[in-house]
Recover the amino acids of this structure.
């Protein structure tokens, strides 16, 4: 087998991310950038998360999709401010896209802002948007080889949420391998096992992220 | 809800794709570009497909991954020529990457070349590499909203292979919706339902692609 290496030039967007960051800090809003492959359950996780946060903290969402508003419509039903970004072909959100929609959100009235990135395990991890933390969602149906194949997202994330854990009995997936390989890439990674469908494990994740926000706001 | 539109500039790579195309044609090799989200089962499909083709037709594989050689190693066990491209961060294969590895394959001795693209539902569909057909694999665990959210890949593909069909009883997924919405985007799309794990539906797909090759080679 021959192995060949291709090159990629990445656009720097860190300057704009820093400006977003300052704006979030000034507004007192804690920002969570949620990333996963298509269909891992980002919107379901946000539905479950926000319904638990509502009444305690004020949440908002920036929803990223190539086209359409299906997920934004689901989240708007929770009675929170939602802005849809349609990337028109771009496979990730970048700091500039986020910057351009911030005036459309009541930032000063929010405690937490969730950014649902475009479904993709590659490029979203390369683009900081000014978030406090990145969180990765992995459906266990995607297999146990994802940490070794898409290491950057595991490295960049503060938490890994393993979703669809209710399907484990029907899959040949080694969940311990996922955990072990993820922690090899990122020993600080906090790992949660959840089933959005069966409403399992959500509370642990929600407590963790609220706690992290509380600590972050005190700094 | 406010809807905002971001812009993306795509690099043209069609000139190089055309050169690849001419080279494939001259060598008499039929080229299938296989695309899907991460973990939908591209490598499993190739294992099942090539083991059925072996002995009748000579197959080769170009394997695209961000990093690593795990899938290429699995396919090399079938006794066929395999070249691994590591894209080092790029979320798709492009015509130039393919062009650069063609000398590493015995093109004139192959009947079919399978290109396993990087796991991503977005950019791989935007980059022609000189293939005869694009084929899309969708795991039904990804949900029934994928045609409306990632329409380009459905539009560009000649066939849609719905994989992990054995998990249907455990999912809230409307397979008829996937089919209906896919055909709305691309009425010519040939749809197969398969389970690589249970070895179901593979023969239909393999017959179809061999038949398409035979017809293509006569032109």
């Amino acid at each position: 087998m021959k192995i060949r290496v291709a090159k990629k030039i990445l656009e720097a967007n860190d300057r704009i991310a820093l400006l977003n960051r300052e704006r979030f800090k000034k507004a007192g809003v804690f920002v969570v950038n949620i990333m996963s492959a298509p269909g891992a359950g980002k919107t379901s996780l946000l539905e479950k998360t926000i319904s638990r946060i509502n009444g305690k903290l004020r949440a908002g969402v920036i929803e990223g999709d190539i086209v359409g508003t299906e997920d934004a419509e689901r989240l708007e039903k929770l009675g929170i401010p939602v802005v849809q970004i349609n990337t028109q072909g771009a496979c990730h959100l970048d700091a500039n896209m986020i910057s351009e929609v911030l005036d459309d959100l009541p930032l000063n009235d929010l405690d937490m802002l969730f950014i649902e990135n475009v479904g993709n395990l590659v490029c979203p991890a390369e683009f900081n948007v000014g978030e406090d933390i990145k969180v990765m969602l992995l459906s266990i149906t995607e297999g146990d080889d994802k940490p070794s194949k898409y290491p950057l997202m595991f490295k960049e994330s503060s938490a890994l949420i393993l979703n669809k854990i209710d399907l484990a009995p029907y899959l040949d997936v080694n969940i311990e391998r996922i955990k072990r390989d993820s922690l090899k890439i990122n020993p600080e990674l906090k790992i949660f096992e959840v089933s959005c469908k069966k409403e399992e494990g959500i509370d642990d994740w929600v407590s963790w992220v609220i706690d992290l926000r509380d600590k972050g706001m005190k700094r």
Observations:
- Chain A has one domain: 2-217.
- Strands of chain A lie at 2-5, 30-36, 59-65, 82-86, 112-116, 133-139, 159-163, 190-193.
- Chain A touches chain B through 63 residues (CB under 8 Å).
- The two ends of chain A are 52 Å apart (CA to CA).
